[in-house]
């Protein structure tokens, strides 16, 4: 029974998906409830006792901030930003000791995988991995027919819930799998004797992503990652100072030199006034940058915990799908994975250098 004036949410990867997947189903099962009203423009079902169920998309996380929730369902959570639960939804559930349900198909070892593993060891959680052989919902005839056109990875991911299968259309699937095999994704300690170089993807309305790297011999070690949205340069420079690393160079894309209409000054000039002197990463095409990442990735070691969000992003950074042609476009899909991937491209196209002289602590 719904608690009086309680609020519940269904969250899909995008708002469009939420509407296509769940709106008709929600109306079908709620229509028989006396007094229910449906708000088509807001994808919302309102009940006589003041309770409400609303459909949302994870592509607009700001729309979820500040709401109070008694329960939430994440559908295809493996395709959603890894911070949407911890930063936004978890606080929304706190006041009412609400619950969360995560469902979906695996897409690599991302936050969905980590939640599943956590649930296996925590008695207050329930983790279920249900292969097609466990549910018997799909006939063997249909499965045999699917095998004829699906790759082994596609079949194992869709029907056997494999977290090991590569994501179709992912740019760096092979490189990430190889890094895991070579144990280059693990705990990477910070060395105060070696400068930390940063690469930035600067957003305005979008997220800003910062990667923290150290050059040790022939290895590049990514020791940390930070991402946020809706913040000014002052916020990110404060983050750098609080991390208390000893810094070397800071790299940003070429558009940091563009003058802002409101101030007449570029963000590069603004950053200099705040104590950060940016170098400009080479302005190569996206295709050239992706190839540079693939070439240079074998030198990269990544801290598994501090860079968990980054790993999730580049694991799912993939080509855009063309529904009309039924094939992938020759360009990346722009979504929550793009900022980390762009930052990585700027790192990859920057000419290598040795351990330069330490400049400052921020």
Give an overview of the whole structure:
Helix 10 (286-296) packs across helix 12 (338-349). This protein is 33% helix and 22% strand. It is built from twelve helices and 15 strands. The protein folds into three domains: 7-121, P-loop containing nucleotide triphosphate hydrolases (Rossmann fold, 3-Layer(aba) Sandwich), CATH 3.40.50; 133-165, no CATH class; 181-349, Nucleotidyltransferase, domain 5 (2-Layer Sandwich). The strands form three sheets. A seven-stranded mixed beta sheet has the order 7-13-10-9-8-11-12. The protein has a six-stranded mixed beta sheet with strand order 2-3-4-1-5-6, covered by helices on one side. Strands 14-15 form a two-stranded antiparallel ribbon. It is of the alpha/beta class and 362 residues long.
Care to give the gist of this entry?
The chain has 362 residues and is of the alpha/beta class.
Secondary-structure map:
Layout (H helix, E strand, L loop, with lengths): L6 E6 L2 H16 L6 E3 L4 E3 L5 E6 L13 E5 L7 H12 L4 E5 L7 H11 L10 H4 L4 H10 L2 H8 L13 H9 L3 E2 L9 E6 L5 E10 L2 E11 L3 H11 L3 E6 L14 H7 L4 E3 L5 H11 L3 E4 L4 H9 L2 E4 L4 E6 L5 H12 L13
Parallel strand pairs: 1-4, 1-5, 5-6, 7-13, 8-11, 10-13, 11-12
Antiparallel strand pairs: 2-3, 3-4, 8-9, 9-10, 14-15
Helix pairs in contact: 10-12
